[in-house]
């Protein structure tokens, strides 16, 4: 299995744990990632609202850089994935956009034909090209005893890209179960993390973050597991501010699904980026390392979080 690979900016820096763990588990699953040469930023989300044509051209340049013979382009970052997918889709839908974008690309001796490559998220190639049974066969250290809240965020499943149900996806749930974890019923799995709202309107952003963390805590989750660098950053970096706004003291680790895969596959915590998070995930590692309960000492039921507050209203 060979794919063109677009890491995006975040996986080079603040989401390095995601990039390192994804490449590590992909290698164990015999998935070859061929990184685009001289790739550029996808423009995140704001650029499209400011000047659409340069934004589309910026993204299309990455599509045009995919080497001949590679049909699938993988992007682990949800924003990068959405921008690449949207650009390919809309260039095929609007002939004038295709013409204008290729006029811009021609200045760099490039061109792109819509449908030339298929844009896919990292979760997609793992669960659909490898499959849950094969994933389970690679497990050396099952995540037995860990209660995990699967968090997809907005971009990967909306609009409907065919990967999963846009309102209540289950592919990440099934993946975590294949790793041996207990998946909690997380009703906000496809809710928004706020994006850049912590900078634009902190009160609104912290309310969204608090709601996500509080719901996971009410389900007695040991960690929230995500597939999006923006989601991980918001819930991890701004959890303390959300606690301050709501007078709570949650300490919920927020990790990437590829980090959990790496642990289950027998890789060391350091190899998959543990320790780079702001809200420490040491308790996750400690629980995983604890001996399984015996018949004489049954597993203790998780205690409800005493700091949990009623769900804040967003209206």
Report on this model:
The chain is α/β, with parallel strands linked by helices and 315 residues long. Helix content is 43%, strand content 10%. The chain has 14 helices and eight strands.
Summary keywords:
315 residues, alpha/beta, four-stranded parallel sheet, 14 helices, 43% helix, globular, disordered C terminus
Count the strands? 8
Ranges where pLDDT stays below 50 over 5 or more residues in a row are 306-315
> SSE order in H/E notation?
EHEHHEHHEHHEHEHHEHHEHH
User: How would a textbook summarize the main sheet?
Assistant: 4 strands, parallel
How far apart, in Å, are the first and last alpha carbons? 47 Å
Strand fraction band? 5-15%
Strand order of the largest sheet: 2-1-3-4
Helix content: 40-55%
Tertiary shape: globular
User: Average pLDDT across residues?
Assistant: 92
The value of Rg in angstroms is: 20 Å
Structural class: alpha/beta
Compact overview of the structure:
The protein is 43% helix and 10% strand. It is built from 14 helices and 8 strands.
Describe how the helices and strands are arranged.
Layout: E1 2-5, H1 16-28, E2 32-35, H2 47-50, H3 52-64, E3 72-75, H4 78-93, H5 95-105, E4 118-121, H6 122-130, H7 132-137, E5 147-151, H8 171-178, E6 182-183, H9 197-200, H10 202-218, E7 223-226, H11 229-237, H12 239-246, E8 254-256, H13 257-264, H14 282-289
Parallel strand pairs: 1-2, 1-3, 3-4, 5-6, 5-7, 7-8
Helix pairs in contact: 1-13, 3-4, 3-5, 4-5, 10-12
């Amino acid at each position: 299995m060979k794919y063109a690979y677009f890491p995006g900016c975040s996986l080079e820096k603040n989401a390095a744990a995601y990039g390192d763990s994804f490449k590590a588990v992909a290698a164990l699953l015999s998935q070859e990632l061929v990184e685009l040469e001289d790739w550029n930023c996808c423009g995140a989300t704001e650029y499209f609202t400011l000047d659409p044509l340069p934004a589309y051209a910026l993204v299309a340049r990455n599509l045009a850089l995919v080497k001949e013979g590679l049909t699938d382009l993988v992007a682990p970052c949800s924003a990068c994935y959405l921008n690449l997918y949207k650009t390919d889709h809309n260039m095929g839908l609007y002939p004038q956009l295709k013409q204008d974008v290729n006029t811009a690309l021609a200045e760099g001796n490039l061109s792109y034909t819509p449908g030339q490559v298929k844009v896919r998220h990292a979760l997609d190639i793992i669960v659909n090209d490898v499959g849950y049974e094969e994933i389970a066969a690679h497990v050396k250290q099952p995540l037995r005893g860990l209660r995990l809240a699967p968090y997809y965020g907005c971009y990967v499943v909306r609009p409907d890209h065919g990967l999963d149900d846009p309102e209540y996806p289950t592919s990440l749930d099934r993946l975590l179960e294949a790793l041996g974890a207990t998946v909690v019923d997380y009703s906000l799995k496809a809710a928004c993390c706020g994006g850049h709202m912590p900078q634009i309107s902190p009160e609104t952003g912290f309310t969204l973050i608090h709601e996500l963390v509080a719901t996971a805590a009410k389900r007695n989750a040991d960690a929230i597991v995500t597939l999006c660098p923006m989601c991980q950053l918001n819930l991890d970096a701004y959890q303390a501010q959300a606690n301050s706004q709501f007078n709570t003291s949650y300490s919920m680790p927020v990790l990437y699904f590829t980090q959990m895969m790496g642990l289950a596959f027998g890789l060391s915590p350091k190899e998959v980026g543990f320790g780079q998070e702001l809200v420490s995930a040491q308790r996750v590692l400690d629980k995983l390392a604890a001996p399984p309960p015996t018949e004489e000492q049954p597993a203790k039921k998780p205690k409800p979080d005493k700091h949990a507050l009623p769900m804040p209203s967003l209206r």
